[in-house]
Specification:
3-stranded antiparallel beta sheet, 4-stranded antiparallel beta sheet, 28% helix, single chain, alpha+beta, 3 domains
């Protein structure tokens, strides 16, 4: 808890001031939408700047002596706020655009920058985690340095797993392999899938198909036809 409070103070999240009680968030008035848009950003949601005027009581255990009557005027988002995800994304999106990256139209969490020498960097944002892809390590290191100036980040090193997908590299043969063995693993799990509702089972197969198993696309298409009324043969 003390570490969280240090982050709040370091980020200049709020300041104390007088205010009558009775404030609460109301949908369509205080927030417009819930937004869910992989290095790791520490306390990512605390970076978002608030557009609304929000106040809260001082946290229990951290009330300043002699200022018990004051409340916190929030300048930045907190975890749990309806605005938090949206404001964090807007902050990050603004940073990427300012540094010459283009947001793709197919996925607004995917940013691409092409350089004059033919090199490129692709960055995928998954909530508060980032996956960076590129050939030129010096350009990637420069991006990491710029990111660390605006956000408190932790470099987790070369990617080995993301969203349940295991990534392995064979540099000798120039191969990059994706695997979902953690999802489709043992005979025991295959037996247990028999007790899973048909639609859920097809959904699991579809996830594997999209990520790492395009070879089962035809089979998934066939079994998907019977989602509304599956029989024993399916």
């Amino acid at each position: 808890m003390y570490e969280e409070m240090k982050s709040l103070h370091k980020n200049n999240t709020y300041e104390l001031m007088e205010l009558p009680k009775g404030f609460s968030q109301k949908k369509d008035i205080d927030f417009e939408e819930i937004f869910s848009p992989v290095l790791d950003v520490k306390t990512a949601f605390l970076h978002g700047d608030l557009e609304e005027e929000i106040y809260m009581e001082q946290l229990e255990g951290f009330i300043i002596k002699g200022k018990e009557h004051l409340v916190c005027w929030l300048k930045k988002s907190l975890y749990g706020f309806k605005q938090a995800l949206r404001q964090w994304y807007k902050k990050f999106d603004s940073f990427m655009i300012e540094h010459g990256y283009d947001r793709t139209t197919s996925d607004h969490c995917l940013f691409v920058k092409k350089f004059f020498d033919g090199e490129f960097i692709i960055l995928l944002l998954y909530v508060d985690d980032m996956l960076i892809v590129g050939h030129d390590t010096s350009k990637i290191d420069k991006l990491k340095k710029e990111l660390s100036k605006s956000f408190e980040i932790k470099d987790l090193g070369p990617t080995s797993q993301i969203l349940g997908i295991k990534i392995s590299r064979d540099k000798t043969n120039g191969k990059l392999c994706l695997s979902q063995k953690a999802i489709l693993r043992s005979e025991k799990e295959k037996k247990e899938i028999r007790n899973v509702p048909y639609a859920s089972a097809v959904g699991s197969l579809m996830y594997a198909m999209v990520c790492t198993r395009p070879d089962i696309a035809h089979a998934v298409r066939v079994v998907s036809k019977f989602l509304s009324n599956p029989g024993k043969e399916h």
